[in-house]
Amino acid sequence: MKKIIFAAIAAVTVLFSSPSNAVFANERLLPIYRVDRSDNLISISFDCAWGDEYTDELLSVMDEYDVKCTFFAVEFWTKKYPERIKAISEAGHEIGTHSATHPHMSKMSKEKIAEELKSSAAAITEITGKKVELFRAPFGEYDNEVISAAKELGLFTVQWDVDSLDWKNLSSREIADRIIKRTKSGSIILCHNNGLHTAESLPQIFSALKAKGFKFVPIGELIYKTDYKILPDGTQSNN
Fold first, then answer.
1. 24: burial class by Cβ within 10 Å (0-12, 13-18, 19+)?
2. 136 phi and psi, to 5 degrees?
3. What CATH number should be reported for the domain holding residue 53?
4. Number of domains present in the structure of the chain
5. Would you call 224 exposed, middle or buried from its count of C-beta atoms within 10 A (0-12, 13-18, 19+)?
6. Coil, strand or helix at 235
7. Is residue 84 part of a domain?
8. Facing residues of 237 across strands?
9. What is the pTM for the complete model shown?
10. Which candidate, 19, 62, 61, places its Cα nearest to that of 157?
């Protein structure tokens, strides 16, 4: 049942993985899909909502390849695995919120959205002692109210421009090939902490992308915090 739920969530995510799938009647607010950079900095991220079987392996491989990343954790996952949250943070990785209950936030009032964000961020901070600055919407689903509520709470809403599709239980080679072919300077890569072959794919990904001159940093180090704009395709630019 868990695999069915995981696949269903990820399938909905695909529908919202591109700016072209969201249309607003008024001004359209966008999250950050990638960053306009020429220095070959990139970020890999892992959404944490269900399961924890492979997180240790993820951390081990990233330690071996000296890679720092960003995890986006749902509050109920955070509370179920507090020692894991602590270990992720102490290993030097960044943790953002993925909401409190993983709802369809674009169907919620702004007040309820804010409650989800404040509660989930507080749960992470209580364990790590670190301020939460990043947010990834459940299902990759957003509207103006979602992005506006996050911004008012000091959170940067982050999507991705490279989707591993690891939720489809692709082989490690297939996952690696997708990521290696699509990654460019400023890319944000989407993975899941409990993808069946995600951890297995990481050595291939890290070796190939590092050989191309890319450097992995947490998303908080990739994005611009001030004096930026978001282009119609979701690219964050400081030009």
1. exposed
2. -120, 125
3. 3.20.20.370
4. 1
5. middle
6. strand
7. yes
8. 229
9. 0.89
10. 19
Could you read off the pLDDT of 145-182 as tens digits, one per residue?
A: 999 999 999 999 999 999 999 999 999 999 999 999 99
Residue 20 has pLDDT above 60, yes or no: no
Q: What is the pLDDT of residues 197-229, one digit of tens each?
A: 999 999 999 999 999 999 999 999 999 999 999
Q: What is the pLDDT of residue 69?
A: 98
What does each C-alpha distance from 78 to 52, 57, 91, 122 come to in angstroms? 11, 18, 16, 10
86 found inside a domain: yes
Which residue range(s) make up the domain with 141?
A: 2-17+29-237
Q: Reduce the DSSP state of residue 228 to 3 states and report it.
A: coil
Residue 176 covered by a domain: yes
Identify whether 164 is part of a domain: yes
Tokens of 142: 């957003």
Distance CA 95, CA 68 (A): 11
Q: CB of 97 within 8 A of CB of 236? A: no
> What's the rounded Cα separation, in Å, for the pair 92 and 36?
25
What is the SS3 assignment for 158?
strand
Q: How far apart are CA 200 and CA 172, in angstroms?
A: 6
DSSP string across 48-112: ESS--TTHHHHHHHHHHTT---EEEE-HHHHHH-HHHHHHHHHTT-EEEE--SS---GGGS-HHH
Residue 153 near residue 118 (C-beta atoms within 8 A):
yes
